[in-house]
Write a structure and sequence with these properties.
Layout: H1 11-18, E1 29-31, E2 47-51, H2 54-64, H3 75-86, H4 93-102, E3 117-120, E4 123-126, H5 127-139, E5 146-149, E6 162-166, H6 183-195, E7 199-204, E8 212-223, E9 229-241
Parallel strand pairs: 1-2, 1-6, 2-5, 6-7
Antiparallel strand pairs: 3-4, 7-9, 8-9
Helix pairs in contact: 2-4, 3-4
Length: 242
């Protein structure tokens, strides 16, 4: 699924590192910031995916249980769902979540503008249909994932898990839920998870000195430096561990 900050393009690079010491498929792989599930959908065995965005997690839960999303998203329907999200309506939360992420440019949940059908140099481009096709390709891969909706520090992590955190990057465009993200609190949580027996990995540009960078790669993005669509931002993606 299209999602701001998605790791789909580097999954093949970082997953072998993250899973290197996994003893079996019975050992839990946990993502407390699962977002678009573009990494966890490539992992087998016991998996837990969590995120603080209620609409996002309702969408994933419904999809995993067999819900079929709409192929078409009109501007009126998009605006209707956006208003419900702003008013924190919980009825049909899975639909509001789906439209917000798959009907917005860049997967930015009602923050990137409506992505409908537009004319390009190559002809007509149907963004809602593209999103639908991408999500439906992903559905079989998320079967069996345990989905939770909570903050990372409230998530119950099974003993001896492998934890991967794709946190909101410092000094970058962020979703509303993560604008007040407490980085120092997160760093302390990571250290505690390590102390009680988990193996933990974090994607970020920079981390405190006790976090070791185990991989890095230059990656280009369609976002500009301030998070707007249509830019050509180049950054160094890094993977850290303790």
């Amino acid at each position: 699924m299209k999602y701001m900050g998605s790791k789909s393009r580097i999954a093949k690079d970082i997953l072998p590192i993250i899973l290197k010491n996994r003893t079996s498929d019975e050992q839990y792989y946990v993502e407390p910031f699962c977002g678009g599930c573009n990494l966890i959908d490539k992992v087998k065995g016991n998996r837990i995916a969590s995120d603080i965005n209620y609409y996002l997690m309702c969408m994933w839960y419904a999809l995993e249980k067999g819900w079929i999303p709409p192929k078409e998203i009109t501007r009126d329907f998009y605006n209707e769902c956006r208003q419900k999200a702003y008013n924190k309506v919980v009825v049909d939360a899975h639909i509001i979540g789906y439209v917000g992420f798959n009907g917005s440019y860049g997967g930015r949940f009602y923050d990137g503008g409506f992505a409908g059908i537009s004319q390009t140099n190559g002809g007509e481009r149907n963004y809602p249909l593209e999103s639908y096709n991408n999500v439906m390709k992903q559905v079989d891969k998320i079967k069996g994932i345990t989905f939770k909706c909570c903050s990372y520090n409230d998530l119950q992590v099974p003993y001896n898990s492998i934890i991967y955190c794709d946190i909101p990057y410092k000094n970058t465009k962020q979703y509303i839920e993560s604008k007040d993200f407490d980085y120092e609190k997160f760093y302390s949580w990571c250290r505690n998870m390590k102390e009680i027996g988990h193996e933990i990995f974090v994607s970020e540009y920079e981390m405190p000195e006790d976090f070791k960078c185990v991989w890095q790669k230059e990656v280009k993005s369609s976002l500009s430096a301030n998070g707007k669509i249509g830019g050509n931002k180049t950054s160094i993606e890094k993977l850290f561990t303790l």
